């Protein structure tokens, strides 16, 4: 009898285990689209979560989200901050906080559970946390901006002067010194929590008790400093010790101050380097203490003797002061920190991911190119800095020069007008020394080092390099997708483009990592979808929108660059293809992430810009701007690209107005868009020839993709585009970085992927394959391989790789990938492809293989979403789903359409 009871108990426990396993579960829980974020502003506080289930076709039917003031409380079920109770809803993204006011500089703990289609509850998610930022100036507890030396307002040069000032200009100033600042303090009781809120302009590196705080590079992010200054939040509880402690901070210039030594894109200064900091210490007895930046800090020049974001950096290791950032260091020779001019920018928490060093490259080849000069080839162009290991005598100096290209003699070639950018390191003569720049970077494939022994055996007394790596810096946004296929060239194009994307994802999207480092809006306007398929840029685009809001002119213009450090002229300050980013970024965040709050926040900025465009239009046409920048042959009229983007943005604005309940505005913008479309067709369309303007690839494709072609002519215009590509252009690419995206989309979205395959699958004419053939390792600025060797603007092909070949997209009226469109394109010689994309609801994965009479497609559809799958099939084809024949489907244009819920499916067509 006893044995029977044990057997029954085991059976019960096993069945219970299967029941738990079969339930839906929360596998990721995010706050502000990040895991356990810090510096959260309650006005931006929202939650989302991802779910998994072993069942198919599972939707969320309800959720419960709870928040507590401590981890102990949330574990004990004491939800003393917020409790939604059970909310009947399938909403699992963008769930905004609606509870009582939260305190600043506090950590809160939360979790969520969900109910599935059968109304069965999941277990609670793992406990998550978020830390609020500082909400008001008073919350800074009288922390002051401090520095080593102040600069009077009369020294400001804002906006910057484009390039260098003329010799003798009285405004010329010297490179601002990079200071060290320190503060000792004592913790007399047991510490429960220690939060540091800090900003340093232009950039800072902070440490506590000699240990680095965080690992960000060039923090905080680049902004319009007169409008917005970002601060960072760190939990440093584990770095404090009982008794004496010390904070140390090193400051650099960044975009805050750029003198004209060496290469510059613009010369100017907001002021000298400065710091503001607040350390909030909460003790176990419940009391708090605040350590603030003030005159009690100490300051002195650092060993960095020169640094600019454009020109490079110099370091003299002999000036190091050992232990300067630790307690008990003697700082008697240091000056008292000075209270400096307070910047006018509002302090806001940095909501984006930091810039980090996320790759380390080793040299593939080393070449002696002259006396005491060696060039290292790292085999890959990337945004980065050199890190050097060296031995030598005190006072010996190395010159380190990064570059993208080489001269014929093997020395480095800083082409494209960016010379000189260099680093120098002066040794302290203390064994092996390791150094890397802190406040500058470059586009680097090659590194030239001068003033060194060329090999170990050399009898010279010069320094010996014992190690050299390149550290690649980029925005730490998580990878959002992957792609691979059976075509080797396409895989290399994917890698080529990926290196350009991640090299230009910094705290904003740069034009390139060497000549510009500016945030030209075109890059984000043309490439946002391609970028988003590879990296999760939600937080980045929220930051970019803030920069545009800050840069907007009084007349409503949003300039071509934001922050607008340099005020350019003509189309370089006002080009609609660039400026309409101000409207289309918010539309993107709604379409791809379901964010309506950003529409509310940016609505005034967007309508002011729309009014500006309307004031510049002539008979509803915009006939100015940069046009199809860097196209081949300059064959597209400027009015085509400018007006097309005008129509596209006004159409999007009308829909956003409707979305937030502004129906009158929606109607006005809808009517304006209709007028633009009519004027566009009257001006540019030849109905007899079925041509737009010159019939260029850009003119035809943009008209098709942006909905400017009347339905009566759509098929004719498409056929004309394809015929022109094949017969006149000989399958050669002519579109530039404005039109190329729409050429690609016009072909793969309108049943002509084979034409696109033919154009892409070659290396004999300017294009992707041509760049690879010429030795490019990152996407180049121009189709013929000239100018910047690392520029992302032409990387639109990734949209086809993901949406076309891999077949991962969303249906037209879907938001945030709630309803997927899985439509693979097995074109050309492709025999297999696979892709993945991390949507707001979770990972979407596809993989297909093609044989003579069989097509197999495996898909993973996230919980809480549905999908329409388009399989290549004909009437009479046999279709199987997970091995069972499917009879409930319909055929449309050689495609079988299947409606599927969440789950993993293997679909086969025979």
From TrEMBL:
Keyword match Signal: yes
GO biological process: carbohydrate metabolic process
Record has Signal as a keyword: yes
EC numbers for this chain: 3.2.1.40
Keyword terms, alphabetized: Hydrolase, Signal
Location of the Alpha-L-rhamnosidase C-terminal domain: 812-883
A Pfam family that the UniProt record links to this protein: Bac_rhamnosid6H
Signal peptide as annotated in the record: 1-22
Catalysed reactions, semicolon-separated: Hydrolysis of terminal non-reducing alpha-L-rhamnose residues in alpha-L-rhamnosides
GO molecular function: alpha-L-rhamnosidase activity
Chain ranges of the Alpha-L-rhamnosidase six-hairpin glycosidase domain: 479-804
Alpha-L-rhamnosidase concanavalin-like domain residues: 370-457
InterPro entries, alphabetized: 6-hairpin_glycosidase_sf (IPR008928), 6hp_glycosidase-like_sf (IPR012341), Alpha_rhamnosid (IPR016007), Bac_rhamnosid6H (IPR035396), Bac_rhamnosid_C (IPR035398), Bac_rhamnosid_N (IPR013737), Ig-like_fold (IPR013783), Rhamnosid_concanavalin (IPR008902)
Residue ranges of domain Bacterial alpha-L-rhamnosidase N-terminal in the record: 190-355
Name used for this protein in its record: alpha-L-rhamnosidase
Biological source species: Spirosoma validum
């Amino acid at each position: 009898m006893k044995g029977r009871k044990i057997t029954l108990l085991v059976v019960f426990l096993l069945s219970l285990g299967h029941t738990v396993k079969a339930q839906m579960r929360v596998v990721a829980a995010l706050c502000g689209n990040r895991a356990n974020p810090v510096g959260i502003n309650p006005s931006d506080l929202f939650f989302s979560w991802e779910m998994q289930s072993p069942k198919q076709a599972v939707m969320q039917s309800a959720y419960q989200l709870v928040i507590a003031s401590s981890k102990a409380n949330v574990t004990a079920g004491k939800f003393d901050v917020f409790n939604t109770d059970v909310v009947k809803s399938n909403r699992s993204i963008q769930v905004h906080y609606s509870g009582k006011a939260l305190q600043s500089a506090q950590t809160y703990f939360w979790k969520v559970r969900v109910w599935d289609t059968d109304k069965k509850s999941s277990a609670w998610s793992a406990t998550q946390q978020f830390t609020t930022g500082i909400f008001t100036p008073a919350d800074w507890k009288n922390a002051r901006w401090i520095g080593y030396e102040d600069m009077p307002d009369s020294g400001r040069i804002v906006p910057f002067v484009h390039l260098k000032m003329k010799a003798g200009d009285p405004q010329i100033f010297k490179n601002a010194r990079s200071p060290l600042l320190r503060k000792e303090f004592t913790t007399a009781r047991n510490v429960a929590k220690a939060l540091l809120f800090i900003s340093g302009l232009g950039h800072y590196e902070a440490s506590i008790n000699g240990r680095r705080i965080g690992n960000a590079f060039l923090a905080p992010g680049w902004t319009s400093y007169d409008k917005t200054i970002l601060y960072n939040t760190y939990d440093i509880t584990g770095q404090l010790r009982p008794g004496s402690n010390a904070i140390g901070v090193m400051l650099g210039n960044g975009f805050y101050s750029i003198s004209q030594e060496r290469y510059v894109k613009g010369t100017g200064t907001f002021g000298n380097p400065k710091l503001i900091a607040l350390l909030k210490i909460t003790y176990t007895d419940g009391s708090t203490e605040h350590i603030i930046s003030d005159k009690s800090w100490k300051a002195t020049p650092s060993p960095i003797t020169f640094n600019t974001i454009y020109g490079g950096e110099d370091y003299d290791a002999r000036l190091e002061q050992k232990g300067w950032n630790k307690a008990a260091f003697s700082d008697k020779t240091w000056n008292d920190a000075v209270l400096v001019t307070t910047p006018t920018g509002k302090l806001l928490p940095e909501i984006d991911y930091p810039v980090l060093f996320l790759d380390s490259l080793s040299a593939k080849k080393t070449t002696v190119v002259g006396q005491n000069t060696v060039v290292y080839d790292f085999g890959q162009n990337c945004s980065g800095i050199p890190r050097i290991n060296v031995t030598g005598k005190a006072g010996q100096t190395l010159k380190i020069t990064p570059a993208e290209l080489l001269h014929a003699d093997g020395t480095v070639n800083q082409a494209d007008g960016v010379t000189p950018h260099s680093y120098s390191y002066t040794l302290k003569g203390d064994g092996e020394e390791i150094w890397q720049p802190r406040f500058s970077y470059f586009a680097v494939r090659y590194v030239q080092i001068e003033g060194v022994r060329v090999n170990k055996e050399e009898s010279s007394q010069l320094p010996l390099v014992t190690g050299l790596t390149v550290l690649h810096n980029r925005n730490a946004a998580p990878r959002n997708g992957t792609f691979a296929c059976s075509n080797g060239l396409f895989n290399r194009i994917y890698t080529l483009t990926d290196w350009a994307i991640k090299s230009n994802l910094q705290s904003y999207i740069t034009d390139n990592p060497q000549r510009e480092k500016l945030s030209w809006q075109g890059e984000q306007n043309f490439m946002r979808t391609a970028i988003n398929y590879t990296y999760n840029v939600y937080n980045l685009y929220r930051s970019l929108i803030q920069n545009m809001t800050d840069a907007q002119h009084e007349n409503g213009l949003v300039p071509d660059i934001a922050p607008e450090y340099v005020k350019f002229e003509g189309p370089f300050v006002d080009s609609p293809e660039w400026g309409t980013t101000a409207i289309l970024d918010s539309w993107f965040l709604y379409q791809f992430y379901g964010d309506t709050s950003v529409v509310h926040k940016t609505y005034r900025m967007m309508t002011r810009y729309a009014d500006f465009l309307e004031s510049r239009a002539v008979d509803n046409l915009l006939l100015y701007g940069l046009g199809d920048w860097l196209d081949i042959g300059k064959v597209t009229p400027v009015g085509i690209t400018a007006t097309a983007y005008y129509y596209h943005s006004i159409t999007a604005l009308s829909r956003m107005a409707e979305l937030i309940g502004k129906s009158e505005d929606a109607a006005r913008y809808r009517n304006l868009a209709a007028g633009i479309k009519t004027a566009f067709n009257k001006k540019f369309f030849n109905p007899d020839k079925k041509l737009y303007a010159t019939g260029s690839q850009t003119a035809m494709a943009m008209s098709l993709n942006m909905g400017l072609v009347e339905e009566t002519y759509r098929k004719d215009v498409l056929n004309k585009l394809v015929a022109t590509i094949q017969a006149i252009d000989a399958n050669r690419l002519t579109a530039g970085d404005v039109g190329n995206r729409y050429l690609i989309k016009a072909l793969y979205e309108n049943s002509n992927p084979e034409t696109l395959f033919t154009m892409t699958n070659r290396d004999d004419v300017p294009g992707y394959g041509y760049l690879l053939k010429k030795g490019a390792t990152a996407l180049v600025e121009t189709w013929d391989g000239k100018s910047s060797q690392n520029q992302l603007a032409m990387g639109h092909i990734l949209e086809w790789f993901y949406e076309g070949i891999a077949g991962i997209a969303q249906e037209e009226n879907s938001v945030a990938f709630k309803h997927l469109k899985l439509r693979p394109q097995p074109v050309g010689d492709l025999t297999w492809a696979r892709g993945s994309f991390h949507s707001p609801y979770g990972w979407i994965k596809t993989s297909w293989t093609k044989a003579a009479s069989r097509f197999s497609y495996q898909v993973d559809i996230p919980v809480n979403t549905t999908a329409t799958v388009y399989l290549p099939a004909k009437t009479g084809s046999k279709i199987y789903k997970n091995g069972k024949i499917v009879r409930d489907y319909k055929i449309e244009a050689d495609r079988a359409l299947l409606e599927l819920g969440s789950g993993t499916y293997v679909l086969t067509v025979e």
